[in-house]
């Protein structure tokens, strides 16, 4: 028995020595080249292994160093520890899989070879120092820990519990640093209850679900602190995502700026909820909070508070804040697609607003196609426009506007209660000034009524206007205007008059008309009295002296007459005009002007219905008789002129309304040269 036992022990000792010597003779280095060559043939890319160490005893371990797959994949070390292998079912379970300093350039040049396994599970895996570069992103210094990593499983996606730290992640739109998350990996979907990263000089954290095949990102309980976003840094590349959603986000001290567009939103503190965006559609959500300041160019608002809800169809906002040394409070709704703005309420108080050059054209470009105003209130505003297209200055301006709208360029009343009331201390427009003005206007969908428009003008002048405008034939539209000491030069510039006059004038208008046939329904009176007017760059006295010294009257057409009048200036002592209008026919009751040496008179009128002239112009002598008469006949746009001399007292019924100038010639004023001996005087001569 003892001998048998001794023999058995010797046998086991020799067997152990044989196995130990056999394993000692195994050298994994000899297998690295065949393995690398096999992988190269399978993938079509050169594969190199610097060092290979294998432990054939359980647990089986493999260490490969300096592994490379073409230029796309490189590892400093790959460590594998096998937990179990079922050769019959081709199931492999690894206890550890460690990848040290992998460097990957994506996409790979060729697909990796398929493993002859049915399932592959890694209990614990560590990836350290990962660098990955692709067309869509650049990842540097990443470390990851994966547990229960199901790499291969029949009918199942890749599954793993994941812990990830990334030193730097660059995408075409964003750069993230010091990113950390712990969650789950299911196929190409990453889910985490907490992701923390630094971006835009701030910090953000949230629960995240990233579905890469669907290009979808879902965020929950987002917290963002100190983000300073410059739009130019986002680049012009398209977003790789097609959908982004957020149930709730809390933002503190977040700023958004664009140096290119001179646009800024600074120090936002608030909440964004129910946010949803899909590629090709407008985002939707609700925003609540405060903003330190917002501006574009010289436009600047501060200390803004309010809430904003937005979708593809409508934006609703309630805001209040400060700006231009005053305050504002507003509620509005905007339909971006139809470009319609409904201003439910806007109040501006105590603001001192300066509008830069070009603002009016910018407004014309950006203004909505339809603007509805429920309530607009200005209190003690001062407005100064530096735009040559709208050279306006207002101080002490108060305004109350309700239930009015602008459709394109057409004003309209929203209901029966439209009104516009305003007053100002001083108004200036391109050199024309007015003080202590008042405006009162009411409107319904079919009728606009101007109860009062009044203001003081320079040199003890004044302006008062009232009337109504109807879109229907009944009631009639009307205008009553009374102006004292109007500055002809300034008002000529304001109304873009083709004639340049200077001086002062009083004007009275009282007109009634039924629309739309205003040319045949116009009725009323008008009266104009100008004192010391001056007609710039037009000569009359020298031209009249020349004509009155000729035997034959001038034969000038409308265009030739205007050309003959150029090249001088004409001062007047006085000019008056009075007319009655009945059924679109204007009939002068008085009309005349006295220059330094001549007295001119008008009679007749014009017919707006037939658009024809019936006007006579007379050059009167001291006795009030016309010695030269011009007749205007024919279409308003192209009248025909005829001139004639009148002999003796044939035409003395003129109602000039002004006195003959003191320096005017004695009668007769027509003094043609004496005829040569033996020749009769010219026909039409006053001699």
Automatic annotation (TrEMBL):
<feature type="region of interest" description="Disordered">
    <location>
        <begin position="659"/>
        <end position="687"/>
    </location>
</feature>
<protein>
    <submittedName>
        <fullName>Uncharacterized protein</fullName>
    </submittedName>
</protein>
């Amino acid at each position: 028995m003892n001998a048998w036992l001794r023999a058995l022990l010797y046998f086991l000792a020799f067997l152990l020595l044989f196995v130990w010597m056999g394993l000692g003779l195994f050298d994994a280095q000899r297998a690295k080249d065949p393995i690398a060559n096999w992988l190269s043939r399978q993938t079509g890319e050169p594969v190199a292994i610097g060092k290979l160490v294998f432990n054939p005893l359980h647990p089986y371990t493999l260490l490969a160093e300096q592994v490379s797959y073409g230029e796309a994949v490189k590892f400093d070390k790959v460590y594998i520890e096998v937990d179990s292998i079922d050769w019959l079912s081709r199931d492999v379970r690894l206890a550890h899989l460690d990848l040290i300093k992998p460097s990957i350039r994506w996409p790979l040049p060729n697909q990796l070879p398929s493993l002859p396994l049915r399932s592959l599970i890694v209990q614990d895996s560590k990836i350290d120092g990962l660098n990955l570069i692709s067309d869509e992103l650049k990842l540097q210094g990443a470390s990851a820990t994966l547990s229960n990593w199901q790499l291969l499983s029949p009918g199942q996606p890749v599954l793993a519990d994941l812990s990830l730290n990334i030193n730097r992640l660059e995408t075409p739109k964003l750069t993230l640093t010091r990113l950390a998350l712990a969650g789950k990996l299911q196929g190409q979907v990453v889910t985490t209850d907490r992701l923390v990263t630094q971006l835009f000089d701030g910090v953000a954290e949230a629960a995240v679900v990233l579905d890469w095949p669907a290009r979808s990102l879902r965020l929950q309980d987002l917290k963002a602190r100190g983000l300073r976003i410059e739009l130019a840094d986002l680049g012009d590349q398209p977003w790789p995502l097609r959908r982004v959603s957020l149930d709730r986000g809390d933002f503190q001290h977040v700023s958004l700026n664009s140096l290119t567009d001179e646009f800024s939103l600074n120090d936002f503190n608030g909440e964004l909820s129910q946010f949803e965006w899909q590629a090709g559609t407008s985002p939707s959500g609700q925003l609540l909070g405060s903003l330190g300041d917002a501006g574009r160019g010289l436009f600047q608002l501060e200390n803004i508070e309010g809430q904003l809800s937005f979708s593809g169809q409508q934006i609703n906002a309630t805001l209040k804040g400060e700006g231009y040394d005053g305050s504002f409070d507003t509620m509005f709704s905007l339909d971006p697609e139809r470009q319609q703005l409904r201003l439910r309420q806007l109040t501006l108080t105590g603001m001192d607003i300066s509008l830069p050059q070009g603002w009016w054209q910018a407004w014309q470009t950006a203004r909505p196609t339809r603007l509805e105003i429920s309530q607009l209130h200005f209190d003690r505003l001062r407005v100064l426009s530096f735009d040559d297209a709208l050279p306006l200055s207002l101080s002490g301006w108060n305004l109350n506007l309700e239930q009015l709208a602008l459709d394109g360029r057409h004003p309209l009343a929203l209901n029966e209660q439209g009104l516009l009331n305003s007053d100002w201390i001083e108004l200036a427009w391109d050199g024309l000034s007015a003080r202590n003005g008042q405006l009162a206007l009411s409107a319904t969908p079919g009728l606009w009524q101007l109860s009062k428009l009044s203001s003081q003008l320079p040199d003890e002048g004044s302006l008062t206007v009232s009337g109504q405008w109807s879109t229907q034939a009944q009631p009639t539209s009307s205008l009553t205007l009374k102006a004292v000491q109007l500055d002809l030069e300034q008002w000529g510039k304001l109304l873009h008059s083709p004639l340049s006059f200077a001086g002062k004038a009083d004007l009275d208008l009282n007109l009634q008309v039924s629309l739309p046939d205003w040319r045949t329904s116009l009725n009323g009176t008008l009266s104009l009295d100008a004192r010391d007017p001056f007609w710039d760059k037009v000569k009359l006295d020298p031209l009249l002296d020349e004509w009155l010294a000729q035997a034959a009257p001038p034969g000038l057409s409308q265009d030739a007459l205007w050309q003959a009048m150029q090249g001088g200036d004409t001062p007047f002592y006085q000019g008056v005009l009075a007319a009655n209008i009945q059924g679109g026919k204007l009939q002068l009751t008085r009309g005349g002007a006295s220059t330094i040496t001549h007295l001119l008179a008008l009679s007749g009128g014009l017919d707006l219905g037939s658009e024809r002239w019936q006007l006579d112009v007379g050059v009167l002598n001291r006795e009030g008789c016309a010695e030269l008469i011009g007749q205007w006949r024919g279409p308003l746009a192209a009248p025909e002129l005829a001139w004639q001399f009148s002999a003796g007292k044939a035409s003395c019924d003129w109602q000039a309304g002004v006195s003959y100038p003191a320096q005017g010639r004695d009668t007769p004023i027509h003094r043609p040269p004496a005829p040569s001996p033996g020749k009769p005087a010219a026909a039409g001569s006053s001699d």
